[in-house]
Amino acid sequence: MSRIYRTDQYAVTCVTKVSEVQEKNGLDIISCEDSVFYPEGGGQPSDTGTVSLGDRLFEVTSAHDKSLEGPVWHYTDAPAGTFHEGDEVTLTIDWDARFINMQRHLGEHMLSGAFHNLFGGVNKGFHMGEDYITIDIDLDGRMLTEEELDLAQNMVNSAVWADLPVTVTWFDDYESSLALPVRKQVPHDGRVSVVTVGDIEDPFDCIACCGTHPSSTGQVGLVSLYKCEPNKGMNRVFFDCGKKALDKLTGDHAILTGVSKRYSCSPDDLPSRLDSEAESISALKGRVASFASYVSEKEKEDILSRIQAEGCRAYTYSTRLLTADELLKLGFAVIKEADGILLILMQPEAKTCLLLSSGDVKCGQFVKENARTFNGRGGGRDDNARALFTDVKDMKAFATAASEVVK
User: pLDDT value at position 172?
Assistant: First the structure.
């Protein structure tokens, strides 16, 4: 069969004949004498598009092959039995999606080449995702610095804007392909295609690849690095190219503009404004913590006084002034000075009920056995437990049931 994308990556449609038909999950899968569809491989997603049979139009949801020289199988949404061997069909790819993949794939080659040329980094992993591309650059355990990432980004974008030629050279075997200065040698059987960026005698990058690429680097548009993280001793670099990168930068700029407007400052002044805001929040948290400590101490004294005055074995307390965690600390402080008491603490805003016991009540067991009865959930230990509810009324009913245990 003829894989048209190999000789003309800009071909969008072709008229051809069906060579073979298979069926999967009640749908037709077809191979044809010719195809403009790139099958998934080499880290690049397959093309999608349409296939027409007469006046009927069907979707091609993906394309796959089992070998580089075998047929391309077009997975369609046509019911089984729609196509037959010898049918004349028109195959048409989604060009916008194809060109985005071309931009991204060539950009990946160039960025990997930049890391190799600058630092000797070896690309040992490539994934083209929906929101970003990742490559894993191996530097024998060394992590890239921000300065090195900036250097690589500037280098690759300079090559993009220089609009260097991109050529694809086919060789009958792997050994013959070594006539070119390929960056990464990966021996394999069969024909080999080598993608060269720039002058073949002194290329910016040269690598074996079966994907589709633009004919010049300027069509990539730009390459934008997002971040770099350690991954299995390597550098996982997140980035994107062309329209995908532009869309991301446009979205990020809109967010930056919105946040700047919210803080009534320019984007340039935003870092200092956020630092000032963080200092204010930190000071406020300190004041709140002091207030909570003061309230807890006063409430502890009041609760202990009431327990002693009333001589009760179960005491229920509710407050909105303390968080559930602060309330738990208060409970431990009370239990430490109260003997033989079941303490039932409620935080209405969090719809949380805390049980603390200095006696025989096993709090965790009670929550486990009874919380669901009141549409709640939770658990804990013998001396303390927590139950969460979706409704305050259910929480209060649970607290009442808990108080009945020691009567």
Answer: 87
Q: Tell me, what's the pLDDT at 174?
A: 86
Rounded alpha-carbon distances, angstroms, from residue 237 to 111, 127, 143, 318: 10, 11, 11, 51
pLDDT for residue 58:
98
User: Rounded to the nearest 5 degrees, what angle is found at the Cα of 307, between the Cα atoms of 306 and 311?
Assistant: 115
Residues with Cβ within 8 Å of 336's Cβ and at least 6 positions away in sequence, in order, are none
pLDDT of residue 72: 97
Residue 406 confidence (pLDDT): 78
Give the pLDDT confidence score for residue 317 in this predicted structure.
95
Instruction: Give pLDDT < 70 ranges for the chain.
Output: 407
CB neighbourhood size of 397 (10 A): 16
In this prediction, residue 69 carries a pLDDT of: 85
The pair phi, psi for residue 220, each rounded to 5°, is -70, -30
* Total count of residues recorded for the chain: 407
* Cα 20 to the center of its chain, rounded Å: 39
